[in-house]
Amino acid sequence: MKARNTYQKIELLIATLAAGFFIFIAATSTNYYSERHQFSENHIGYDFNTNYLRPLVAIIIVSYLLFVFLTQYVETKTRGFFKIILFLCSYLLLAFILSVCFTYIFAWRYGNEAYATQRDVNASFFVEGFAVAAVSFVIYLVYYGLKELIFSPLLKQKLKESNGSRLVFIVLSILAWLIILVMLSANNAAAFAIIVWAVILPYALLMFYLNTLVLIPALPEKKPWSSYYLSRIVPIVLLINFIATVFCVAISHPVSFIGAYTLLLLWTGVAVIPLCWWIYKNQKEKLGLKTALGSSQANLGFLRSQINPHFLFNALNTLYGTALQENAERTGEGIQKLGDMMRFMLHENMQDKILLVREVEYLRNYIDLQLLRVANAPDIQILVRIEEPAAALLITPMLLIPFIENAFKHGISLREPSYISIALHTQNNTLYFDVQNSIHVKPDGDPEKFKSGIGLPNVKERLQLEYPERHELVIRQTAKDFFVHLTINL
């Protein structure tokens, strides 16, 4: 989340500087205009401000405002069908502005004999305006898709595992596609070959990644599919088909708009979407198996760390010492808490999601059991502020306890002043969890010195798998303190 917000600020700054730079270039280039000679050849009056500067500045400003609107609002503040409508309206607005501005920039066409009537001239402006807008939005959609992939936690994990080889492959593939496209254009290749390479291939890839990464994953499990298709997939497919058809007609004028649009629509419905669905289902099954395996390994590792002999001996010694001091009153309490913890680990720990209330009960039992060990140590301060969460909230089991275990393991010393601070509360379905503790280097003879239990890296991986784009984990460490801040949108 933090990285995305920082990127948005940089993105806005670069867009603003670029818009200002282009306006400055346009305003200072008084003697340059590639179409200027066309006005005199076609006996049409030319004015620098009317036929060049004002329409060009209008295009730059509208493009800049639409880019800011899309990147700063539509991408982050809207979802689903409303986002699609805003994308479509932005495209239509840009196409309209371009068409109007072209009537001034290319006004010489009104005197050109190649156009039989004024209606033909206006039609050429309309087609070119929508074509240029389509190109601009395709470039923007590719840019938007790359941003979503870059900020996807699963993609980060894949790139980390493959050492960036997949990203290198994507970049090289795009370069190869551009090189071949330039070669086809330079050698006057057949219009059909250019259409296939410049339109059909990118269209197929766009539809493939859009369906497998965005549309199909968002498919509701309980709601009827028909409403989802009608509200999301169908409008997107119709819009992309329209843009692709505009490209086809612009490249080869004899191509029928209705024929090309119908052909692309049939191809999408019969081949592309079913193929995307099959690939997505296979990938989802593999990811589900990996998630289950990671969760099982985490649970097994934590179970072993909790019931290893060292932990049991410490717990029994604590209970025995307490029994001698207080005639077994606190011993019964400690045994009860230990029993509750064992029942939790044997039953609720095996579920995918549990009530947050039960997770908090386990945390409290663990903390209370640890407090028995340090109750008579005056130099150890334990501050616990855990509020009662809402009963309906669910969470992945054993997700919070590693941070507390880590605090008691590294933050407590019977020979030096120590402290641990634990805070937990919920607000608007969001969990806020903070753990802060002192740090003490364990002596060489301590059997726990080289044991890390479940480990924080494992918790980070589980957070990425269970709550992608729905959590923020901040870990800071100094020479004397260790701090963890975790927020989860439950």
**Helical segment tally?**
15
Task: Report how far apart the termini are.
Answer: 16 Å
Write down how many β-strands occur, each being a DSSP E stretch of 2 or more residues. 7
CATH topology of the largest domain: Heat Shock Protein 90
How much strand content do the residues show? 5-15%
**Mean pLDDT rating:** 76
CATH class of the largest domain: Alpha Beta
CA gyration radius, whole angstroms: 32 Å
CATH H-level superfamily of the largest domain: Histidine kinase-like ATPase, C-terminal domain
Q: Could you say how many structural domains there are in total? A: 3
* Structural class by helix and strand composition: alpha+beta
Named CATH architecture of the largest domain = 2-Layer Sandwich
Quaternary structure classification: single chain
Model regions low in confidence, pLDDT < 50 over at least 5 residues: none
Q: Shape from CA axes?
A: elongated
Main sheet characteristics: 5 strands, mixed
Strand order of the largest sheet: 2-4-5-7-6
Helical proportion, percent range: 55-70%
Reading the helices and strands in chain order gives HHHHHHHHHHHHEHEEHEEHEE
Transmembrane segments: 12-32, 52-74, 81-105, 125-146, 167-186, 192-216, 228-252, 258-280
GO molecular function, one term: phosphorelay sensor kinase activity
Protein name: Histidine kinase
Keywords: Kinase, Membrane, Transferase, Transmembrane, Transmembrane helix
